[in-house]
Design brief:
The complex is a heterotrimer of chains A (288), B (322) and C (316). Chain A contains eleven helices and no strands. Chain A is mainly α and 288 residues long. Chain A is elongated, with a radius of gyration of 22 Å. Chain B is of the alpha/beta class and 322 residues long. In chain B, helix 3 runs parallel beside helix 6, helix 4 packs across helix 6 and helix 6 packs parallel to helix 7. Chain B is globular and about 65 Å long. Chain C is an all-alpha fold and 316 residues long. In chain C, helix 10 runs antiparallel to helix 12 and helix 12 crosses helix 13. Classes of the chains: A mainly alpha (288), B alpha/beta (322), C mainly alpha (316).
């Protein structure tokens, strides 16, 4: 793992993945979700915003596979486009949070002791809020918007990444090869770039994969509360919100809005777990 | 034969591993006469632990008894159902384990654990506690009444081992198996415990299978001794005879390396050179041949058999009375 | 032991103080005038000024902060400017509903998860063990509001087994219990497999320990060994995780309260956010954060009490 060759690792990972049915299921689900979301524009049978008042809250039919909502909009198309919101949020939020987490974690792990303590205290403080409560407090100030949701997710996720990076950095810091490099006068930046980064890349990637469901769930949850994506933009959360209002008229919006969330959760979690077992046998349960 | 408490015949036990079967015990024969203390000596890895586990039938799941018999008071233990075997454990056969730090449950009080040992007795908890107190007194624990509410970590190592012995003798077993009970203790404590054990054995009249790598303790305590090496018995006989006139080169080396028996103190403890043979891929001839200083050609091709009368050894070189 | 707990208490208080200050800073340093935001665009300047003075918004920041801390110490969380009620009273009124919900969820999940974990540890690789393995990974990650919505849809609206709304009538315990079932399942379902997995892993570890071999060597019945000798130790790490889990449960409780129209602190917060009612938002978040930090501390304490070994180590 120390001197990982990219192609070798990819091939090895895939080989190992093939032997793990759950991990493979996750991988297939992830690919399927990505495909459906990225190509939503081609795949969606209708315009997700197209209103058809004569055909409200209908059950699934040949025309509308998942039925229609309270404005007669095609739910399947809304679900497909809703995936784009979820994907965008997770991509932006996770990459920014990971970037900051990497920076702050390395700083805490490699920097002076007072800085480490300060940063750890800051991480603990942010984590001491139940996430949704923190998000709502912020939204109370700024008003509901997708950008606020992304911002809150970034702030609350940074400590998660930073902690992992810090722990790994601290562990590496005392290792012989790093001490030797230091003795030879290598700069901290060089050590971080050439030794620490390659070593924490895999755990970070796995963490990110496992984090996707949390982020998607958070966006959907806040949109469900009417605090995220504003209508009429389709998002899995707003579909559920609409469905909740018309629950007694038609179950389809809720069924359709919940399924992709479950698929994303299972897909990324199984995939992430499997990757974790492949890359870091120390982390896995005693036998699996 | 009828006066033996335990009689093991040709016992072989193997562990299934990725590389093949690890033959941890091979053709082991051991007899423990009623009311006697028999010692087993050997380095770690000689198969002592496997032997104990086999006797009380608590072998690891990957272990397999390939041949032999273990008769306890004439009853074949290997043929017993696991339920029948469980009934014997902690009743007729008891154990004292090596490390008193870890062999008692850390989150239950001494009193609770001692009462649990009497789980077959129908008497109420009070009566069980009274018996526990009596036993604690007999193993020499001062102020036993206050110890019942203590947790194991609140006692010293020596006290804990006394508790363990008290627990083992609680049901007045016919056979007590003591697995290096004094190894974790310092020398003074060791002597105290050994004397206490001797006295208790005389009082209760049980047999003891005493396992140790400490030759001095074996010499002090045991009437008979069995020397094991790499999963086989290499020498056995009355303790005095084996220790004064060792016939197997391994026993000779063991005695040479015993710090208590060295003619003059040295800075470096002598050790037997070489390593244990690979128990998965055993050498063809004598198992000790690789490390033996007196090896002859025959040792490499033909495994020696245990031979002799009361004092037996498995070596091609052995001479003396038959 | 006392020193260990004292140190934990101090660090908890520090985190809580930082969190409260962060919250205060967020509300008071964000650009824009809280009074205008709260009252909306049509408020007259006079009304705004009166409102600001009632909330002490016209005072310098350090005085506001001082008053805020002084209030916190006295347990005073300020006043709801719309209803003129004490925020602390409003929060305390709602807190029991949330507590009951969270405890029911955790209790139910433990009641199912712990035996399941024991079973999985003893019958390793049985189909039930494999199933819990998959379940533990899958269910913990599924957002609890999805579970809540599906439960509502099927068990409350379609089959009408359980009520869809509210917490039941006051004083009628069976009715309250009936109302509690679905929200508690929604909240606790994910934890069943997770707890089972934790218990299983630590059971497997404990069953390898020497004292278990001793218990077996004394022929103790396997049941006694598992329940009294192994589980007592294996449960310890789970207690800590449960304490930490309460934080995510509080987030889930908010959704359960909204989906099932239950009273509770999550719902109070949600409505305060919708109404831009800062003092109430602040009070609700402060109390939940405090509760969360308290639970973490409690988990550590319980752990120390249950484990006599820890009692000693921490005491020395």
């Amino acid at each position: 793992m120390n001197q990982a060759k990219p192609q070798g690792t990819m091939a090895r990972t895939f080989q190992a993945l093939k032997k793990d049915p759950l991990g493979m299921t996750g991988f297939v689900l992830v690919c399927l979700i990505l495909f459906l979301t990225v190509f939503a524009g081609w795949l969606a049978p209708h315009d997700p915003l197209e209103v058809d008042v004569h055909n409200r809250l209908s059950s699934p039919s040949a025309e509308h596979w998942l039925g229609t909502d309270q404005l007669g909009r095609d739910i399947l198309s809304r679900v497909l486009f809703g995936g784009q919101v979820a994907l965008k949020v997770s991509l932006v939020a996770i990459s920014v949070a990971m970037g900051f987490g990497l920076l702050l974690g390395m700083l805490a792990g490699f920097g002076p002791r007072w800085l480490d303590r300060l940063l750890v205290a800051a991480f603990d403080t942010v984590r001491s809020f139940p996430t949704i409560m923190f998000a709502l407090a912020v939204i109370a100030l700024t008003g509901p918007s997708l950008n606020t949701v992304i911002g809150v997710i970034i702030i609350t996720s940074i400590p998660v990444y930073a902690r992992v990076v810090r722990t790994q950095t601290l562990a590496l810091r005392e290792r012989d090869f790093i001490l030797a490099e230091r003795a030879m006068g290598a700069s901290t930046f060089r050590i971080l770039r050439h030794h620490v980064l390659p070593n924490i890349a895999a755990p970070l990637f796995i963490l990110a994969s496992m984090d996707v469901p949390a982020v998607v769930g958070m966006e959907a949850g806040l949109s469900f509360l009417g605090m995220g994506v504003s209508p009429p933009t389709p998002s899995w959360g707003t579909i559920l919100n609409d469905g909740y209002s018309y629950l007694r008229n038609s179950p389809w919006p809720i069924i359709a809005g919940g399924l992709p969330l479950i698929a994303v959760t299972l897909g990324f979690t199984f995939f992430g777990e499997s990757l974790r077992d492949i890359f870091d046998p120390r982390l896995q349960g005693k036998d699996r | 034969m009828s006066d033996s408490v335990l009689e093991i015949r040709d016992l072989s036990v193997g562990y299934t591993t990725d590389r093949g079967t690890l033959q941890a015990l091979r053709d082991v024969c051991i007899e423990i006469p009623a009311g006697k203390i028999v010692g087993i000596v050997g380095e770690s890895g000689c198969g002592k632990s496997t032997l104990i586990s086999a006797i009380i039938r608590l072998l690891a799941p990957n272990a397999r008894i390939s041949q032999g018999s273990i008769r306890f008071k004439g009853q074949d233990l290997l043929g017993l159902s696991s339920e029948a075997m469980r009934k014997l454990r902690g009743d007729e056969i008891s154990m004292v384990f090596q490390d008193p730090m870890t062999s008692l449950n850390p989150v239950l009080t001494i009193g609770r654990q001692m009462a649990d040992v009497q789980h077959r007795s129908p008497s109420p908890r009070k009566a069980k506690n009274a018996r526990s107190l009596m036993m604690l007194e007999r193993v020499g624990i001062p102020d036993p009444a206050s110890q019942l509410d203590q947790y194991p970590h609140q006692l010293s190592g020596g006290m804990r081992q006394r508790v363990a012995i008290a627990m083992a003798l609680m049901t007045e077993p016919s056979l007590l198996i003591a697995d290096e009970p004094t190894t974790a203790l310092d020398a003074t404590l060791e002597v105290q415990i050994i004397h206490r054990l001797q006295q208790l054995q005389a009082d209760f009249g049980c047999s003891i299978l005493f396992i140790s790598h400490h030759l001095g303790v074996i010499a002090e305590l045991c009437e008979e001794v069995i020397v094991m090496y790499a999963g086989a018995v290499v020498e056995s006989g009355p303790t005095a005879s084996v220790f004064s006139n060792p016939r197997h080169p391994y026993t000779q080396k063991l005695l040479e390396c015993d710090p208590a028996r060295m003619p003059q103190p040295t800075r470096h403890l002598p050790v037997i050179e070489g390593n244990l043979p690979d128990l998965i891929d055993l050498p063809q001839g004598c198992i000790f041949s690789e490390r033996c200083g007196q090896r002859i050609d025959r040792c490499l091709s033909e495994p020696p058999l245990l031979s002799g009368g009361l004092h037996r050894a498995a070596c091609h070189l052995q001479t003396g009375e038959a | 032991m006392t020193r260990f707990l004292l140190r934990r208490l101090l660090s908890s208080l520090l985190v809580l103080w930082l969190a409260d200050s962060l919250l205060f800073g967020m509300i008071h340093l964000v650009p824009g005038d809280p009074a205008s935001i709260m009252l909306g665009p049509r408020a007259t300047p006079e009304l705004k000024a009166e409102f600001a003075s009632r909330l002490s918004l016209d005072q310098p920041l350090h005085i506001q902060l001082g008053r805020f801390y002084a209030g916190l110490v006295r347990g005073d969380l300020g006043e709801d400017p719309f209803s003129n009620r004490k925020v602390a009273d409003m929060v305390l009124e709602q807190l029991p509903y949330t507590l009951v919900l969270v405890l029911a969820a955790i209790g139910g999940a433990s009641l199912l998860g712990i035996p399941l974990g024991c079973f999985s540890a003893i019958h390793r690789n049985s189909w039930l063990d494999r199933l819990t393995g998959v379940m533990s990974v899958a269910f913990i990650a599924i957002p609890s509001f999805i579970v809540a919505l599906y439960l509502l849809l099927w068990l409350a609206v379609k089959w009408r087994w359980f009520p869809a709304m509210g917490a039941g009538s006051v004083g009628d315990y069976p009715d309250q219990l009936h109302h509690l079932v679905l929200p508690a399942i929604a909240l606790g379902l994910g934890w069943v497999g997770y707890i089972a997995r934790l218990v299983r892993a630590s059971m497997l570890e404990v069953m390898e320990e020497n004292h278990i071999r001793t218990a077996r060597a004394f022929g103790l019945p396997e049941r006694t060994i598992i329940i009294h000798y192994a589980l007592r130790i294996a449960i310890l790490p789970t207690v800590t995780i449960l304490g930490l889990g309460i934080g995510s449960m509080l987030s889930g409780a908010l959704f359960a309260e909204i989906v099932f129209s239950r009273p509770g602190i999550g719902r109070l917060l949600y409505e305060a956010v919708l109404g831009r009612n800062y003092p109430v938002v602040m009070g609700a978040v402060l109390v939940t954060t405090g509760f969360f930090v308290f639970c973490t501390l409690l988990a550590d304490t319980v752990n120390a009490l249950l484990d006599p070994r820890l009692r000693k180590e921490a005491g020395e």
